[in-house]
Design a protein that fits this description.
This protein is α+β, with helices and mostly antiparallel strands. The protein has 6 helices and 12 strands. The longest helix is centred in the first third of the chain and has 16 residues.
């Protein structure tokens, strides 16, 4: 089963303090181990909340608010990774999502690039990579499937985005009762089984793992959280 491991923003990451070279080396070593074992399927980091956008759709109307966001976490229902030329292009695709989903909240955040980490100069003309996540609704949290019409419309939109070279990854997450949260206090950690309500901390980055059980995902989540030095990691299975 595939699991999404999400580490949450803390004060250091929100301040824009990027990992030190030794931290990056540890992260790459763990990722390399997981890739070598065929467990790591992908992932990304996000810039601080001041660089993100809260896009709300109500009655077919879009409103956009730019961060920073304080105490505005998200209980994620689905995600989409996009590669576009401009922010306006990304927003136009979100409009298409809202045409299918109806009233919804979407958080749009730029992904971390090598130049943000000081690994290379920023190219003059490069695509923009965004992660879009929309809130979990009550229907999905109850484990009820979307209507066949909604599934068909969303499948067609995602196929169009892939054909356009815009969509680089997407999936839905299962209800929170199937997940877990790991909280770190220094060298200690605690695990809270789902279901759970929204947290005030926003996602700072994620990794997708192929693992046999939630217990294995928790084991990797503990390693992940300690390697990247965060306070919280949330684990959610992806829809199969």
């Amino acid at each position: 089963m595939r699991y999404m491991l999400m580490h949450k923003l803390n004060a250091r990451l929100e301040a824009g303090q990027m990992p030190q070279p030794e931290e990056i080396e540890k992260i790459h070593a763990m990722m390399g181990e997981a890739m070598g074992a065929g467990l790591f399927l992908g992932g990304d980091g996000l810039l601080p909340s001041r660089e993100r956008f809260h896009v709300t759709y109500t009655g077919g109307q879009r409103s956009v608010r730019k961060g920073p966001f304080e105490g505005l976490g998200e209980l994620i229902g689905a995600y989409a990774q996009m590669k576009v030329k401009t922010l306006d292009e990304a927003l136009s695709w979100l409009d298409r999502f809202a045409d299918v989903l109806g009233d919804t909240d979407i958080f749009l955040g730029p992904c971390t690039e090598p130049w943000h980490l000081g690994m290379m100069p920023e190219p003059e003309d490069h695509p923009l990579r965004f992660l879009a996540v929309h809130r979990m609704d009550a229907r999905a949290e109850r484990g009820e499937p979307s209507s066949p019409e909604t599934v068909a419309k969303m499948s067609a939109l995602l196929a169009e985005m892939r054909d356009a070279g815009v969509l680089t990854g997407s999936d839905s997450l299962t209800a929170t009762k199937h997940g877990a949260r790991i909280h770190f206090e220094g060298e200690e950690h605690s695990v809270i089984d789902g279901p759970f309500a929204e947290s005030k901390e926003m996602i700072s980055g994620f990794a997708i793992f192929e693992l046999p059980s939630l217990a294995e995902a928790i084991t990797w989540g503990i390693r992940w959280g300690k390697t990247i030095d965060v306070n919280d990691v949330e684990i959610r299975p992806l829809v199969g």
